[in-house]
Design the sequence.
């Protein structure tokens, strides 16, 4: 028997129920009905909520690895951002601190310069503003170097002051710079006047005691001197103008075994860290020269 004549349809024993096409039509119609009914009547909403509730733990577990990776990356990024922000803040704080220090220093220098300018207007002597370059190299002396010299008119013996009082005296004048010996130097002596009593004396430098003070020597033990008295220049030495503040008496020691008192004074000027000073012309150079004597007329008498 030929193969083409064989019946390929299944035997009636295996044929059960409707055909596949019929099932497709029925289920398609049912799906369409359910979709329309859900849109109109929301009949699947409770079922959808139930399924979402049941599947939530599964979704949470499925999303946990990606969430963990995302949180880890965010933490690392936040740490890097925090480190960068901290470094930037520290740098900015350091710059602001440096700028604040510079502003404070500039404000202090501005105030001192204004006081010096005001003092120059009050003085009747010629004054020249100068800036301190550095301290002298000799550790056994108290000297500074200023940026004005003989070219600018500085002469030997010129008084040097700041806005608070006498700083020292020019002891070496060079063409472009000058050497100023401070009043606290052991070789420096300044004639002073006690503004309370009017007594004159001489203040000697004492660079050893208390980091640099002045001492009134050869004052009697019973002299009228008290702590707090202000000493000014007397003006009798022909160098310093009268009335410039020199020092304030800090301590008076009277000893029974000595006829003289030990009187220590604190300089009024900032001799240890002065930056800007005023160089004055010595008072003796401002005294007008003595007028020349007038010629005496000689009367010649004729012989009679």
Sequence:
């Amino acid at each position: 028997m030929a193969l083409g004549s064989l019946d390929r349809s299944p035997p009636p024993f295996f044929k059960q129920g409707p055909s596949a096409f019929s099932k497709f039509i029925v289920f398609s119609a049912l799906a369409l009905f359910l979709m329309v009914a859900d849109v109109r009547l929301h009949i699947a909403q409770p079922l959808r909520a139930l399924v979402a509730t049941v599947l939530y733990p599964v979704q949470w577990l499925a999303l946990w690895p990606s969430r963990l990776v995302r949180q880890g990356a965010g933490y690392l990024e936040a740490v890097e951002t925090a480190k960068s922000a901290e470094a930037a803040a520290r740098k900015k704080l350091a710059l602001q601190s440096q700028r604040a220090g510079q502003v404070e220093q500039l404000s202090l220098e501005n105030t001192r310069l204004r006081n010096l300018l005001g003092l120059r207007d009050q003085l009747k002597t010629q004054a020249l503003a100068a800036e301190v370059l550095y301290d002298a190299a000799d550790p056994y002396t108290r000297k500074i170097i200023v940026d004005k010299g003989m070219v600018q008119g500085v002469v030997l013996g010129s008084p040097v002051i700041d806005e608070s009082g006498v700083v020292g005296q020019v002891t070496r004048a060079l063409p472009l710079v000058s050497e100023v010996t401070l009043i606290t130097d052991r070789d420096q002596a300044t004639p002073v006047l006690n503004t309370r009593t009017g007594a004159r004396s001489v203040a000697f430098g004492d660079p050893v005691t208390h980091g640099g003070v002045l001492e009134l020597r050869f004052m009697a033990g019973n002299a009228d001197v008290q702590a707090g008295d202000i000493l000014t220049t007397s003006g009798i030495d022909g160098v310093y103008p009268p009335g410039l503040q020199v020092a304030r008496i800090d301590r008076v020691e009277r000893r029974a075994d000595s006829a003289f008192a030990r009187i220590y004074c604190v300089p009024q000027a900032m001799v240890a860290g002065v930056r800007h000073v005023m160089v004055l012309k010595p008072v003796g150079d401002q005294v007008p020269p003595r007028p020349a004597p007038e010629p005496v007329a000689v009367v010649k008498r004729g012989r009679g």
